[in-house]
């Protein structure tokens, strides 16, 4: 009689991942934490040990705070859009099953493009000289709405949000659509036969089953919004044209680590690392809060 | 697959029961071997990726020429530089030069990382200013005393590569910045290059009245505004005044010098639409296409204009002072080339660096690339624009960020975009600039 | 939604004047001139090959490694599993700019600097967090009876893994493959730092350099962009049906 073995995890299964991860992620990350305690500019000798000095300066840095605020705006705007419009779109597409196939293919397309390329495209589309947005507005009679979208500090960030949303939406829609597939049709049918309206069906049947999708989408959204770099860098640069209005934490860190332009600029690598650690903490906390809140909602459903 | 998430029960017919599983198993049997194949391919591919590391070392032993690596930050110079390198390799058949490019804004990132990791190229190009001194102090580059023909270099170049009693290398080219203007546009409206500020305003206003955008002022990375400001301020200060600025006897916050910042603000309505978010490249294209009449430009930009519009017809003039008693251009150095202290091919690298200031190399630079750094190299008659550039500056001032005392001005002005959004007035702007200046009475 | 892509493709056929004169208009002719120049002058043939090799290998390695690790994590008791999950997902949160300098030094130390291998190792490592995120949830949702049956029959853990669990996981694996593959193909920052020699540059880097040279020839640049996006788009369109099925079974389960 064979003894029933309790399923024990094979430790060596973890080994390859842990080895790679340890060597090329944990180690470098620890190294940058260590470097953040010094006063290294990025060029030349490492410099003196200044302990938490860099961190203190980060919290007093107005530029970093402003950039962080921009990240928060991006997150809120995208969250609002994702949890309403995107969801709505996904539901619409889910209904028309014949449309689903081809539409799904096209919908995901924006996410497949590189963010550098996307930023570049949007920058050109919004250009006052060769862009199509301003002439387009004029063509449909909304000429009065024409604007220097990227040159006006109050609209520049929102232009970037739209570009980010264009890419993000693609991913979110697809995830939601997948989540909707997961709703058992029998439950919906049962509710309908019980006399529930479409809205009630949605609220009490569909929505709960979407809870896992919500969690995934919103956590990924937080990461996306706070780590945004490639696209924002292409449109706004490391100085966040105009005048810092399009800075995000990612570009501020890059600017401090590697210089803000092609000419002379003193880099502050250690300081950048300190900023990076703060970004990590901020995002970590937000992601943790989201996860806990959403996971609890998930569990309530099941 | 159907399941009831609440109870974890398994419905018959789903893949979760034994029969269904067997079926699935059969179907997926072939996939399993496919997966194994993929894994093998992946492992092989990874090894293949690593193989070049070994292949390279054996290959080099077979070749008779030594290969040295070098980086450039102007990918648009590739056609000309390829020819230059070919000429060098012809006269030095035992040396092979591998020149790769890192685009301008990313150059510092790539170089600093490479230096930190101890894997910088054999010939290291430094952006002018403080960096080369930091590198020298950190012993990242070797002193090349006696190996570089220093006497051949123009003073501005010498100042960048010779310091603390040693010579460290040579630049390949210099750039001069003046004001480019569209000759056809000026001719059409009977305008001449302005020689003082009154004329400057008049020309600007006349162009605007005729519906032409007077100035292309791409401000996305604040590079053009930087040059505009230092030229305007230098036109007021003159060479002596600039030295005074470095010594601390003059300040940009003086009422006379404040006019420079004020001019930039006053002209704002005459800049191209949406200029604050327009990139340098787009601003150049705008000008080259004739959609703007004037642009602060460097000698190397001319190649770029021709790329956009082969028929472009431009002229150059120096930035006039308010009263017209001088016209200023600013000159800076392109990459300063030095020899990596950790290089295993120092003799070859030194030969290349020394060759950069040779007559042959510099003539090519003068004719086709930018401003030469060797004494006596003058653009040939066919390069009218080049000649105009050389003549436009009386005096010619070193670009501010290349001097240790005013090195911080670039960073200061980069973050002073508020001057265009109304957050900074002329005084505020000047204060920011002044705060970044570190006067040295012995300059 | 598709407007930007539409303008991208349209623009790739235009000349520079056409951009200024008629941003909306159709190009004068649909010649393939821009494409031809983009292909040769942006060294697309070299960089595409490098990107293909690097992305393929990195995806394979990271997926394999993630599958193994996720299976193990899924079987751990709660505290252990949570620890490992958080540890790996932390990789999604740390900004990559910071650690590139350290990675550069490590690569140099092990002698892989300037090779495709260094890129593969780094990408494989950074592909793990997504893999773990998607796969652990999926593995946890698999009923224990499956594996217990196999264990009772005397299979080793590895055999159970390969013959039973893997075949069932094709869908979420595909999700991970696509999500990782897309960002690995499009990433430019890591090759920017690690590709010290031009022959190991990847496609995004080649395109970025190309931007630098022909910064104002937008038609040419658009053409190069379209060329660089074609492989991924093509692959994606081919795999799209499978992918959607994968999303259904995998990531949604959290």
Care to describe what's here?
Chain A is mainly α and 302 residues long. Chain A has helices at residues 11-35, 53-60, 62-95, 97-107, 109-112, 115-125, 133-139, 153-181, 185-193, 198-227, 230-236, 240-244, 249-258, 269-301. Chain A has a domain at 64-124 and 155-301: MetI-like fold (Orthogonal Bundle), CATH 1.10.3720. Chain A is built from 14 helices and no strands. The longest helix of chain A is centred in the N-terminal third of the chain and has 34 residues, at 62-95. Mean pLDDT of chain A is 79; it is low at 1-7. Chain B folds into 2 domains: 61-173 and 334-369, D-Maltodextrin-Binding Protein, domain 2 (3-Layer(aba) Sandwich), CATH 3.40.190.10; 175-331 and 387-435, D-Maltodextrin-Binding Protein, domain 2 (3-Layer(aba) Sandwich). Chain B is globular, with a radius of gyration of 29 Å. Chain B starts with 17 loop residues before the first helix and ends in an 8-residue tail after the last helix. The model of chain B is unreliable at 1-62 (pLDDT under 50). Chain C is mostly helical and 254 residues long. Chain C has helices at residues 3-11, 16-21, 33-41, 44-74, 78-93, 96-109, 116-141, 144-152, 157-168, 170-186, 189-194, 203-213, 218-249. Chain C starts with a helix and ends in a 5-residue tail after the last helix. The model of chain C is unreliable at 250-254 (pLDDT under 50). The interface between A and C is large, with 87 and 82 residues.
What is the architecture of the largest domain in chain B at the second tier of CATH? 3-Layer(aba) Sandwich
Overall mean pLDDT of chain A: 79
> And the CATH topology of the largest domain in chain B?
D-Maltodextrin-Binding Protein, domain 2
Find the structural class of chain A using helix and strand composition. Answer: mainly alpha
Low-pLDDT windows of residues of chain B: 1-62
Query: Which oligomerization state do the chains in this entry correspond to?
Result: heterotrimer
CA-CA gap between termini of chain A: 38 Å
Beta content of chain A = under 5%
Write down the domain tally of chain B. Answer: 2
Enumerate the spans of chain A where pLDDT stays under 50 for 5 or more consecutive residues.
Answer: 1-7
- Total helices of chain B: the number is 17
């Amino acid at each position: 009689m064979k003894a029933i073995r309790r399923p024990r995890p094979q430790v060596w299964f973890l080994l390859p991942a842990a080895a790679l991860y340890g060597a090329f992620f944990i180690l470098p990350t620890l190294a940058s934490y260590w470097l953040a305690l010094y006063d290294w500019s990025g060029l030349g000798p490492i410099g003196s040990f200044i302990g938490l000095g860099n961190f203190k300066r980060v919290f007093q840095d107005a530029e970093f705070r402003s950039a962080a605020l921009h990240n928060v705006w991006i997150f809120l705007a995208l969250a609002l859009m994702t949890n309403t419009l995107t969801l709505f779109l996904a539901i619409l597409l889910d209904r028309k099953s014949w449309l689903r196939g081809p539409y799904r293919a096209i919908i995901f397309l924006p996410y497949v493009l590189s963010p550098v390329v996307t930023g570049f495209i949007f920058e050109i589309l919004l250009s006052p000289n060769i862009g199509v947005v301003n002439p387009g507005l004029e063509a449909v009679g909304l000429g009065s709405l024409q604007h220097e979208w990227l040159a006006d500090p109050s609209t520049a960030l929102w232009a970037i949000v739209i570009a980010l949303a264009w890419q993000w939406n693609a991913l979110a829609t697809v995830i939601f659509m997948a989540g909707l597939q997961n709703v058992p049709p029998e439950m919906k049918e049962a509710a309908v036969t019980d006399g529930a309206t479409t809205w009630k069906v949605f609220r009490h049947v569909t929505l709960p089953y979407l809870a896992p999708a919500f969690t995934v989408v919103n956590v990924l959204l937080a990461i996306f919004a706070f780590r945004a770099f490639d696209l924002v860098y292409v449109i706004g640069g490391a100085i966040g044209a105009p005048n810092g209005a399009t800075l995000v934490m990612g570009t501020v860190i890059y600017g401090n680590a590697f210089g803000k332009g092609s000419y002379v600029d003193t880099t502050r690598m250690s300081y950048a690392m300190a900023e990076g650690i703060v970004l990590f903490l901020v995002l970590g906390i937000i992601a943790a809060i989201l996860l806990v809140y959403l996971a609890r909602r998930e569990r309530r459903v099941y | 697959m159907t399941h009831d998430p609440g109870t974890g029960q398994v419905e018959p017919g789903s893949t979760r029961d034994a029969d269904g599983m067997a079926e699935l198993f059969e179907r997926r049997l072939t996939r399993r071997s496919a997966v194994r194949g993929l894994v093998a391919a992946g492992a092989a591919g990874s090894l293949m990726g690593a193989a070049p590391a070994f292949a390279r070392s054996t290959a080099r032993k077979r070749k008779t020429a030594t290969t040295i690596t070098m980086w450039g930050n102007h990918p648009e110079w590739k056609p000309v530089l390829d020819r230059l390198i070919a000429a060098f390799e012809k006269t030095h058949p035992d040396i092979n030069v591998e020149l790769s490019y890192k685009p301008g804004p990313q150059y510092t990132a790539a170089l600093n990382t490479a230096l930190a990791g101890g894997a910088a190229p054999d010939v290291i190009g430094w952006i002018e200013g403080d960096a080369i001194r930091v590198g020298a102090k950190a012993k990242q580059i070797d002193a090349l005393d006696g190996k570089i023909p220093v006497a051949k270099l123009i003073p501005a170049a010498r100042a960048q590569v010779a310091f603390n009693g040693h010579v460290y290398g040579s630049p390949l080219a210099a750039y001069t910045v003046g004001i480019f203007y569209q000759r056809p546009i000026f001719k059409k409206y009977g305008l001449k290059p302005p020689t003082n500020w009154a004329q400057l305003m008049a020309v600007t206003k006349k162009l605007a009245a005729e519906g032409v955008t007077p100035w292309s002022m791409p401000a996305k990375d604040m590079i053009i505004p930087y040059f505009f400001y230092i030229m305007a301020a230098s036109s007021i200060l003159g060479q002596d005044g600039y030295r005074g600025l470095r010594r601390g006897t003059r300040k940009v916050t003086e009422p006379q010098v404040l006019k420079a910042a004020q001019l930039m603000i006053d002209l704002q309505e005459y800049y191209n639409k949406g200029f604050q978010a327009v990139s340098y490249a787009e601003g150049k294209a705008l000008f080259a296409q004739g959609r703007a009449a004037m642009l602060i430009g460097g000698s190397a930009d001319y190649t770029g204009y021709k790329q956009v519009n082969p028929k472009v017809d431009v002229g150059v003039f120096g930035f006039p002072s308010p009263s017209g008693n001088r016209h200023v251009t600013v000159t800076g150095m392109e990459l300063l080339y030095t020899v990596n202290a950790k290089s295993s091919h120092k003799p070859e690298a030194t030969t290349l660096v020394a060759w950069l200031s040779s007559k042959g190399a510099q003539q090519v630079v003068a004719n086709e690339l930018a401003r030469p750094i060797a004494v006596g190299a003058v653009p040939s008659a066919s390069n009218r624009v080049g000649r105009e550039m050389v003549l436009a500056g009386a005096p010619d001032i070193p670009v501010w960020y290349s001097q240790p005392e005013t090195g911080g001005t670039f960073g200061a002005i980069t973050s002073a975009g508020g001057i265009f959004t109304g957050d900074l007035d002329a005084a505020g702007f000047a204060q920011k600039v002044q705060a970044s200046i570190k006067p040295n009475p012995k300059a | 939604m598709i407007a930007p892509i539409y303008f991208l493709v349209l623009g790739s056929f235009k000349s520079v004047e056409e951009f200024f004169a008629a941003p909306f208009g159709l190009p004068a002719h649909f010649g393939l001139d821009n494409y031809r120049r983009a292909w040769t002058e942006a060294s697309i043939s070299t960089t595409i090959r490098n990107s293909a090799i690097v992305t393929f290998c990195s995806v394979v390695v990271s997926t394999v490694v993630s599958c193994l690790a996720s299976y193990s994590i899924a079987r751990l008791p709660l505290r252990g599993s949570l620890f490992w999950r958080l540890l790996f997902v932390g990789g999604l949160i740390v900004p990559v700019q910071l650690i590139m300098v350290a990675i550069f030094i490590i690569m140099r130390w092990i002698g892989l600097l300037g090779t495709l291998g260094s890129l593969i190792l780094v990408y494989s490592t950074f592909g793990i967090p997504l893999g773990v995120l998607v796969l652990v949830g999926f593995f946890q949702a698999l009923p224990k009876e499956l594996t217990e049956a196999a264990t009772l029959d005397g299979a080793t853990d590895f055999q159970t893994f390969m013959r039973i669990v893997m075949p069932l996981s094709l869908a979420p694996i595909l999700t991970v493959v696509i999500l990782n593959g897309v960002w690995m193909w499009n990433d430019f920052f890591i090759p920017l730092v690690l590709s010290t020699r031009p022959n190991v540059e990847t496609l995004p880097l080649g395109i970025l350099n190309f931007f630098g040279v022909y910064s104002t020839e937008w038609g040419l640049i658009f053409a190069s962009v379209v060329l660089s996006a074609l492989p991924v788009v093509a692959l994606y369109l081919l795999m799209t049906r499978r992918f959607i099925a994968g999303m259904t079974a995998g990531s949604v389960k959290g």
